[in-house]
Amino acid sequence: MKYIDEYRNKVLVDNLVYGIRKEVSRKWTIMEICGGQTHSILKYNLLQILPAEITLIHGPGCPVCVTPVNRIDQAIVLGGLSNVMLTSFGDMLRVPGSTSDLLSVKALGGDVRFVYSPLEVLDLAEKNPEKEVVFFAVGFETTAPAVAMTVKQARNRKLKNFSVLVSHVLVPPAIEALLDSEESRIDGFLAAGHVCTVMGTSEYIPIAKKHKVPIVVTGFEPLDILIGIYEVVKMLEKGRYGVKNAYTRSVRDEGNQAAQELLREVFETTQSEWRGIGFIPASGLKLSGEYMEFDALNRFQLDVPSTVSIGACIAGKILTGQQKPADCSEFRVRCTPEKPLGAPMVSTEGACAAYYRYHRTTVSTL
Amino acid sequence: MKDPRKFNLQCPIPKTEYAHILMAHGGGGRMTCHLIQELFIAGLGNEILDMGHDGAFLPPMDGEVAFTTDSFVVDPLFFPGGNIGDLAINGTVNDLLCCGALPLYISLGLILEEGFLIEELWIIVQSIGRAAEAAGVKIVTGDTKVVEKGKGDKIYINTSGIGTIHPGLNINPKHCSKGDVVIINGDIGDHGIAIMSARQGLEADIPVISDTQSLTDMMMSLFRNQTGIHVLRDPTRGGLASALNEICDSSGTGIRLHEKNLPINDGVRGACELMGFDPLYIANEGKILVILPESEAEEALSIMRSFKAGKGSRIIGQVTSDPKGILCLETTIGTTRIVDMISGEQLPRIC
């Protein structure tokens, strides 16, 4: 299959691993931002072929994982209302809130549905005029433009029974927060390719300069990830920093300007809570004044007490790269994909779920 | 009289008084009798069913008997490559084959929702008839119940099946041993992706057709020639990964798959890449995993490949002694990873 097979080609992969081995002279810690990259790293077990000097830590780029508990609790309350149809992406339905999850709400009779595209929700709203149809919108700069388009179309279609529970977050402020943290030990970043497809690369230039780190825009296939690592290592070994685009088949420096324009029109930035990390200034999106009528928080009076985190989960330490999933005493014990104690075990893009599924430290003879 | 089972899809619906299923069709009275006579006997009749007893009188059977049951709730009822009717027959027939049995008799239980179109029921009954004929089984007993509108979803089917174990065979996941090879009879993931495409209204460049089919002819030929088969399993819900994980669990052996040898057609690959599914976990309805000693593999492959259902047969992996009880995959880039059991539900109501 074109654009897939060549990026999973053993000869090309072997050459690149050889190149990385040749470049590397000391230990480096590299964070891949995106959960899609984490998934690919574990699915292709790149840890098996990378030189021991390279440590990969798995960043906070899994939208399901960083959605705050309080927002999930709000969705759970909405999903349980008899006049509400709550819609979201499939993974979101399994994420535990403080006491329940959306699948349980559905099992108890709530009208909770998963959709592949937010635009589907407009049709659902039109076909179900007796219901208030809410879309629980999560994700980074990648999914936000589709939600912006949906809200805009809802206004054009004069839909009065559609609203959005917004939980969109932005990557660059999170990278800054990680670098500002005293515990940070990250030498370089693989930036999330598809976020950059939308936003371009310019946002990362000041971050790379300020913190003197290499940031390489990276794709998602095993070869893409190795190219990203190779470029980061080359810059680190030469003492260079800056932004490089290693995913040129998808990312242009200026990004997708139509999508950016849509984001600017429909959303404005706001302080946002990241599950396991905390509040980060200007790291989230909320509907702008002009579109406020579609804000579910505006439409419904939700009295949901705020909850910061749940018991045993060390999501924060996982998402900031201070610990690996296997370091958690609950990993594989009480915390499994069937019964996740925290968000990184829920989504296939979550670091814990990826380790659970593809990697077992106890298996030495693989 | 012309055998009604020979009718094709254009076969006119038998004359019934109503266009829809009513509660009274499940009431046991005159309307139930009409439904049985005009649809089920007309579409499925044979000398045992035609006796009209409360249960089936079966002739004596030779040797050990295999018995299985399965329920079908697939949504949508009609999908590329089949419908709930042929699925319900093929599923139970293939379960019997996985026991090493010759499938013989099937029971058919239907739960119908009030308001279900009798025309659609008739199409399903005809599919059941054709699938049973192709698999060489008889529908020998049945039951119909009707639930109120909104209390079911059009039609649910349960089939149970009886077959006789082929002499000399001893199929058991515990027999899986180091040095065995794992064979599959063709592309994986077709059924699950066909259902998903039908459900989502996806129009792919390469349409994917469900693989629902009975494997009777191919497997009976294999049984006659290969009594050294250790394990048989149909990788239905949960796909190849879940079926092989179960075998690893039962046998305590490891299995090593080779990604480059996995047969996956471009339609399924494309859909999986697009939707973020892993073909290893996607349901199949006409595939079988055959695990047997490597020395017997070549003959088994040549037998399987001589049937339409087995044209794509190939070796996809080996049984290993270590790591114990774990399914591994050698990736296309030469690394190895674990393939775990599926968590949760990748696609609901697939069969």
CATH homolog superfamily of the largest domain in chain A: HypD, alpha/beta domain 2
Order of helices and strands of chain B: HEEEHEHEEEHHEHEHEHEEE
The termini of chain B sit apart by 35 Å
Query: What's the CATH architecture of the largest domain in chain A?
Result: 3-Layer(aba) Sandwich
Number of beta strands of chain A: 11
Tell me, what's the shape of chain A?
globular
Mean pLDDT of chain B: 92
Percentage of helical residues of chain B? 25-40%
Radius of gyration of chain A: 21 Å
Q: Which strand order do you get reading across the main beta sheet of chain A?
A: 2-1-7-8-9
CATH class of the largest domain in chain A: Alpha Beta
Q: Which sequence of strands runs across the widest sheet of chain B? A: 8-10-7-11-9-12-13
* Helix run count of chain B: 8
Main sheet makeup of chain B: 7 strands, mixed
- Element order, helices and strands of chain A? HEHEHHEHEHEHEHEHHEHEHEEHHH
Distance between the termini of chain A: 28 Å
Structural class of chain A: alpha/beta
Shape type of chain B: globular
- Show the largest interface: A-B, 30 and 22 residues
Present the secondary structure layout.
The complex is a heterodimer of chains A (366) and B (351).
Chain A: H1 10-23, E1 28-34, H2 35-43, E2 54-61, H3 63-66, H4 69-80, E3 84-88, H5 102-107, E4 111-114, H6 118-127, E5 132-139, H7 144-156, E6 162-168, H8 171-180, E7 188-192, H9 193-199, H10 204-211, E8 214-218, H11 222-237, E9 242-245, H12 257-266, E10 267-274, E11 278-287, H13 296-299, H14 315-319, H15 351-358
Helix pairs in contact in A: 1-11, 2-15, 6-7, 7-12
Chain B: H1 30-44, E1 65-72, E2 78-79, E3 82-83, H2 84-98, E4 101-113, H3 118-135, E5 138-147, E6 155-165, E7 180-184, H4 190-200, H5 216-225, E8 231-233, H6 239-251, E9 254-258, H7 266-275, E10 289-293, H8 297-305, E11 314-320, E12 327-330, E13 336-338
Parallel strand pairs in B: 4-5, 9-12
Antiparallel strand pairs in B: 1-6, 2-3, 4-6, 7-10, 7-11, 8-10, 9-11, 12-13
Helix pairs in contact in B: 1-3, 2-3
